[in-house]
Specification:
The chain has 2 domains: 64 residues, Arc Repressor Mutant, subunit A, CATH 1.10.10; 182 residues, Chorismate lyase (3-Layer(aba) Sandwich), CATH 3.40.1410.10. The strands form 3 sheets. It has a 6-stranded antiparallel β-sheet with strand order 4-5-6-9-8-7. Strands 1-2 form a two-stranded antiparallel sheet. α1 crosses α3. It is elongated and about 70 Å long. By secondary structure, the chain is of the alpha+beta class. It has 10 helices and 10 strands.
Length: 264
Amino acid sequence: MPKAYEVIADDLRRKIEDGRWRPGDRLPSEEELRRTYGKGAPTVRQALAELQTEGLIDKRHGKGTFVRVPRRPVLRTNERHQWEKNRARRSEEVRAGTGVTERDTGLTVDDLDFSADYHEIEAGEELAGQFDVPVGTVILERVYRTRYAVEPAPFNLTSSYLVRDTVAANPKLLDAANEPWPGGTHNQLRTVGIELDRIVEEVVAARPPTPQEARELGMSPGMAVIHLRKKCVDTTGRVVELSDIILPGDRTRLRFVTPLERWS
């Protein structure tokens, strides 16, 4: 038998899904909901917390509870990597016209707001192990944020790492002012003679966001993020780029397509 808060949550959810309350609409106050359902404040608050965890509503301090405005969805597939590699040798005009973010979101370059911040750091044990270099090796850390210009939060939080000496032959790769780079990582590495053989992506965790992640991504309490680690491996088997990507679970879908060999 469903609990009282589940019954209330189901009814509120149905009204949102049926369009009685549309995105941006203010829900009745907790007092009004208490009278409507004949239940106490803790039960009503538990029902609202359920919907907030699902990403259906937002609670705004001092203003009330509102139907959450859906954010631009992102469909991230493993096919994106071959798509990007295919474009790495195209003209700059073609490469600049669209990138993997546009592919994942269906938006255009003009729809996006992009930022990049570069730092040089020394490799600790983990990064040194990932790149098979000595501890203390200089690493170029690149922090990327891309958002739909009409939304406040980025699509994800990306930290990318390169061994500085690997890309230093092209000084442009050391300067964040050259971002966004037409053609992305594949073309960047191509300028220093590196071709990628494969990209390994691993879901490290599906977990609650840290407070800082929740603030940056505009997430409500109870929502989850996906921590994805991406390794770019060149044709010699060397890891040449590593990225930690924090994806908000309320707007990101992951799709994996695995071609299978035919039986003869």
